[in-house]
Structures are given as C-alpha cells and as structure tokens.
Amino acid sequence: MTGAAVVVEGLRVGLAGSPLAIVEEIDFEIAASEVLGLVGESGSGKTTVGLALLGHCRRGAEITAGRIMIGDIEILRADPAALRAARGRIVAYVPQDPGTALNPALRVGEQLEEMLAAHLPEMNAAARRTRLLEMLEEVRLPATAALLRRFAHQFSGGQQQRLALAMAFACRPRLIVLDEPTTGLDVSTQAHVLRTVRELCRAHGVAALYVSHDLAVVAELAHRVVVMYAGRIVEQGAGRDVFTAARHPYTERLLRAIPDPARRRSVVGIPGHAPSVARRPSGCAFAPRCDRATELCRQTFPPVTTLPNGQRLRCWHAGDGAAHGLSEKGEEATLEVGPALLSMRGLDASYGDFTVLQAVELEVRTGECLALVGESGSGKTTLARCIAGLHHHYTQPVVFRGRPLGRAVGERDQDARRRIQYVFQNPYASLNPRRTVGEAIARPLRLFFDLGRGSLARRVAGALEKVSLPAALAGRYPDQLSGGERQRVAIARALAAEPDLLVCDEITSALDVSVQAAIMELLAGLRGSTGLSLLFVTHNLALIRTIADRVAVMSAGRIVEIGATEAIFGTPQADYTRELLTNTPGLPTAA
Amino acid sequence: MTAIAPAAAGSGAEQGGSSGLFRRAFSFTRTRVGLAIVALIAAIALFGPFFAPHPPTAFVAPPYAGPSSVAIFGADNLGRDVLTRFLCGGRSVLALSLASTVLGLAGGILVGLVAAYARGWLDELLMRAMDVLLAFPQIVFVLLLVSSLGPQLWLIVLTVAASHAPRVARVTRGTAQEVIERDFVLSAKAIGEPSWRILGLEVLPNLSSPLLVEFGLRLTYSIGLIAAVSFMGFGLQPPAADWGLMINENRIGIAIQPWPVLLPVAAIGLLTVGMNLITDGIARAAIGIGRSAP
What we know:
The complex is a heterodimer of chains A (591) and B (294). Chain A is of the alpha/beta class and 591 residues long. Helices cover 35% and strands 23% of the residues of chain A. Chain A folds into 2 domains: 239 residues, 3-Layer(aba) Sandwich (Rossmann fold), CATH 3.40.50.300; 179 residues, 3-Layer(aba) Sandwich (Rossmann fold), CATH 3.40.50.300. In chain A, the strands form 4 sheets. Chain A has an 8-stranded mixed beta sheet with strand order 6-7-8-3-9-10-12-11, with helices on both faces. Chain A has a 6-stranded mixed beta sheet with strand order 18-19-20-15-21-22, with helices on both faces. Chain A has a 4-stranded antiparallel beta sheet with strand order 2-1-4-5, covered by helices on one side. Chain B is mostly helical. Chains A and B meet through helix 14, helix 15, helix 16 and helix 18 of A and helix 8 of B.
C-alpha cells in the first residue's frame, strides 16, 4: 500500500528476560484518515500492540524486534528525546478510562494548554487560547472559557472522554491510538464519541488505531480490521469483508458469539479459553479450540495467505470451502408462559432523599425470561436489588407467588430467600477469594436443605455439572479460575438453592464475548431443562435478543416501555427505545 | 469493565489462602534476617534457663565485678551472675508481650468488625469509645492503671492489651468496611446467612494480611512497653530475673560494668528490629511486591 501513514513490520514484544513473546509477527499499515480496528479478546495482546506504537511497553515487557514507521519517524530507533517529542505531537494516545487519564488537580484548560505549550512552542498564548476553544468545538463541547476552568471530576464520563480526544487531536498528530475508549460508556454516549472520532480523523487526515474487544463498535467505525488471537494477527482485511465473509475459524466463531440487535439468533460460545503467554502451543494457537484443526495445525504455525480481495489470514484451511457469513437463525420462543410469579405496582425506591425508582410496575411470569434494559443510572440494578431484598428503601411490597415479600432479606422467610436467587455482575467480586468453589456452593445447600456430608458433596458436584464445570473444580480457589468459569460458579451457587426466579444483574458485562456467548447458551439450556424464570438485567440490547421473551425498557427510574421482545425491536413505541436501538452498533449483514 | 479480566485469564499460580503470602514474604532477605533474629532471641528466652551456669539469685562475685572465669559477663549490682540473669530474664518479657498482643488484637478485631458491619449508632458508639482510649499515650495509660492498682502481671497484660485494642480496631474497621462492600458479602446476606458467620467466614479471612502486619507491629510495641514497665519497677519484682528490671537495677554501675545493661538492651532491641523486619516483609508481600509476573 502506498502513502501509508503508519507501517508496522515484524513487531515483537517479549517478556523481559524470557524467551516468551507477548505479541509477535505483527504487520499492518494504516493510511492517513483511515481507522484501523484492532480486535481481540482479553489477553490477545491488542493493548500491547497499541502501546508499542508509542514506543512504550508495560513494566516487565520489552520490544525486541520490528520496525514502526509513523510518517518518516522510526519510533523504535528514536532516541528518548525524539520519542518524547513524538508522543503527543506525532502519535497520541486515548486511554480506556479518561477519569484516570485526566489530572484531577488541574483545571482542564491548563491540561489542554500544557499539551500545546509542550509541542507547539511557536504558538503564543493568544493563539493557544483560540486553539483551545476550537478544540472544544471539534469534540462538541460548549466552547466557553468557563468550561476550561472546570476540573475533570465536574464532567461526565462521556465528556471526559471528549476532553481526552480533544487533547489527543490537539497537535494534529499523524496517528492516534485509541484503547477501548468507549468501554465504560452508555450506548448513546458511545455513539457520539465514535462519530467524533470518525469526523476528526477525516477532517485532519489522522490515521487511527482503534483497539477494542467490541466487534460491533469496530464494524461501525473501522475501515479495515485486524483480528488478534494469542499474540498474533490471525486475519486482517477490509471491515466489510472480514465481518461478512470471515475466513479464519477464530473470527468466524467470534462473530457467531456476538449478539446482534438486528436479528434474533442464538449466540454460540467458543469452548475452552485463550492460552496464556506461557502456555501457547507450538502450532496454531487456536487449534485446541478449532473444530477444523488437523495434525498440521497442531504442529506448525500457518503462514500468511493473501486472498484476491486483499484479505490476509493465517490458517492452513484458508483455501477450504466458501467464506462463512452469518446465517440467520429464526429461533422463536416456544416456552409456555405461566401465571405471574412476581409482580409489583407503583414501586418507588430511594437512596436517602434521592429517588431512584418511580412508580415501577412490572410482572415476571412463571417460566419466562424478562429482560430489564437501560443505561447506567436508569435504576435497573436498584430494581433488581429491591426484588432480591438487598435494597430495602422502597414503598409497595413486591408480590411473589401471590404473597407480599418482606422488604429486606432479613424480613423474608427462608423459603422466599431460597426461591429468589441473585447473580452479581462481576464474578471477580462476588466470590470470596479465601474460600474454595466447593465451600461457596455448599453454603446455600447447608442453609436451605438438611443434608448429610455425602449428599452435600454430591449436590455440589451436581451443581457444578449443571453449569458444565468438572466436579474437580470444587477444591480450587476463585483466583485459579478464568472469568467465565467464575461466573459459572456464581450461577451454580445460585442454582444450588433450586430457585424459582434467577435475577441476573449484568452477569456478562465483565466477560469476553466468546465467554458471554457460552454463558448465554448455558442460561438458555437451563431454562429449557428446569423451567426457571429469569430477570435478566443488562445495558446490552443486542444480548436481549438472544434470550428474552419480554423486555422492559427503563430510563431515569421509570419503565418507559414493556412488551414482547420482537415487538420492542420491530416497532418500538417510546422515543427512548428508538434512540437506544439506533445507537446500538450492529454487525453488517451478509449480502 | 473488561480490564479486570486479563489478570486472571489463566494464571493459576496464585494461591487462594495465606500460604502464598507467607511464601512470598519469605522470599525477601529482610524477612529471613528478621526471622533469624527473632528465632535466636526467642530461643535464648525459652531455652536459656537450661544453660544457665548458676542459680539466678546466687551471689557469685563482688557487686559489679568484671568478667572472670566464674562469671563470663561479670556480676551485677548485688554480685549475681550476669549471664545467668540474662538467660533467665527473657521468658517473662516474651510471654507477657505475646499474651497482651493476642488479647489486644482479638479485642480490637471484634470491636472493629462489629463497628464496620453494624454501621450507624453502634459504629459511632464503639469508635468514639476507642477514640477516648486513643487519647491516652500507651505508656501513660498502662502506668496510670498499674501504678494505682498495683504491679500485678495480669493487670499489665490487660492494660497493654487495652491500649492496643483501639489501634487494632481502627485498622480492622477501615479494611473491613471495604471488604463488606464487596459482592460476595452481599451474596451471603442475600441467602440469609447469620451475621456472625458472614463476619467470621466471609470477611475475617480477607483481612488476614493487614491483621498479620498489625500483629507484628503490636508485638513490637508490646515488647517495648512491657520492658519499660519492668524498668520502672511495676513489672516483675526483685529478686526475679527480668530484662527490663535488669536494666534498671544496673544502670548506676554502667560506667564500671556495662554488661548487665548492655545484654538485655541488645536483646530487646534486636527482638523489636527482627519483628519489624518480618512485619515489613509480610506487608510488602501483602501489597503484591515479589509476586511473579503472570
């Protein structure tokens, strides 16, 4: 490719003092104004590559080989002074969490101006001032002097990310590296930020590397896509080609794992998990999880195959068969829905004087999966916690199986506590690090059932089996498990109580997409086999489509719309729902 | 949100219990040196009496006699063998410090945990009461009670423990508040676990690292306090052999016969330094220094 603004060749970042590579054989180019999406799951090395473009690596790692050209500067050969000058001026970085990137003790004006003063010393104070206001306008923040006098904490997450963007674009760099800049943001804020990135890159001819685990976001934004797995690039090509005709089995499986807001289809997880740096196999790293793997795959890492359309991939089966697009699977809910299991009318909830929920009216029927969707701060978690009795400042009792429930957990009887189980968002926080998996699952069993030692062990093993985990895991501690395994344990602990209703609070938001898909498969299976009712709380609209029978949309503490899943997605009634749907990124449809 | 994931993405090396903490702490040179010192002094205190050349109250030489073949380190103010007195005088210091530290820690943990869990008025009441105790400097508090109620050993242990408790309670409450906010505690509440089980089985094990550090630190202070109390004459009474008492009895003759002061001072000093090194090692291990890269 000619006229590439950024060229990366044979980049290798290794663990310092060890022959192990974190990433290796990284080759790609980015043209001016182009957005390159770098996607991969956690541990794939995508952030390492992003940081290497700034000539930086985390402690314990070192760049051992390769060439990185940004314009006419060779980043890896530059001396420290030149590198310092290049950072910010030639290549800028936008981190994942703007809250930690902005100095809380400085006014934002001072921080933005610092950037200009450091890199463009020829500018005088007046010119810098004008430029500052210009920058604010570019990222669509009100361009006023008052805003520049504020501190970072006085801005919302989305606004902070815009400030970080303004800072990155301040000196008109050649390249800007964005590391998951929208991960913590709501969909509508995310949509705004993404639009800003795209416009700024086009307007100023800036090349962008967009590092993300979210394929849907990358599909919306990026012109070309690089897919990484276990430290290597497995596939790269034009965005449309990769998303509609993925050739590498990993990309293909990844796409099948992603829920799509535009279609109802079940997601399919990828069994197993990505190997850690020290345990990468000698052949193709994906071979142990690949259903097309042969002996050749396991022994030798495949070379790059370039297809006529410029798509490049590393797979021994590159020539096999046709491209695998996404097939639509019309899978309609067939479950019998019974009478109301749980209901509430005119429920208000508050934290102190602050009202979080207003006049909430909701019903969960026996055997159904009701999704509760809303952006952060909409009150969905509070509602879930009211139901579980973990938040008790609310009016109007929740009615469960025809009887009003006590407000707090302590006011409910043992039976009610058993029948409603709660699964928390973050499996890294919801399991006690000092107790084994077996002990964690045994607690509800001991509490709710009168069991002997032998039958207790059997029930623990049975609970693990229900969530597709080996019984041998019972002796392990949570930090010896992967994120997906931990969430399975948390689900097993909830199921051990044999509940009627499982309240799932954002249970997949801390997990990788392939793991998320596996958890969703698990939940769908459990519903089928046990007739469990689910209250599925999430901010991810696409995910709802894979599991929910009905959807309740929440905004600012109220339920704005409630109805059958297909109706909500097909003919949304509330403006808020429509807005959410428009802002949710989706994958391009196969032609 | 996904940023939390990589940390555990398959590194199975870290142990869940505190054995990993000890192993990491032991990998520091400082911890090993500290352990060696403490082991040496503890061995002297425990087994010293068996190797004493004379009975501890026997007069073997003239007062303040210098080192000789009869008494290697000379004699003290009454002409008793310094080495014998030194070998026999450690047990009381060590036993009293350990007892008061364990008691103080237990009391402090109980108060801190209950305060952190209960919140509201009980928290206020307990912690303000602790604040009142904190207002007294430790040594003044101990001397006040011991001097007015008489030099009883149990009283020394109790007062030293009571002077530790508010400090331990502060640390416990602070760290426990953070643990109590975590989801696994909420999850235990959600299934209706009794509060004492939540505190004992879910919260307390997660405080083990800071509390171990606290134990080491408080033990160091106890040794100093107990020795000081003995020095001032409120601890063991003559003619018993005791390091603190030894220093006091012999300080007048320090110019002509330094050994009876020097030996116990060195032992107490080394013991505190050694305990501090161990504590420091555990503290470093607890915050993650020395943890192997994933």
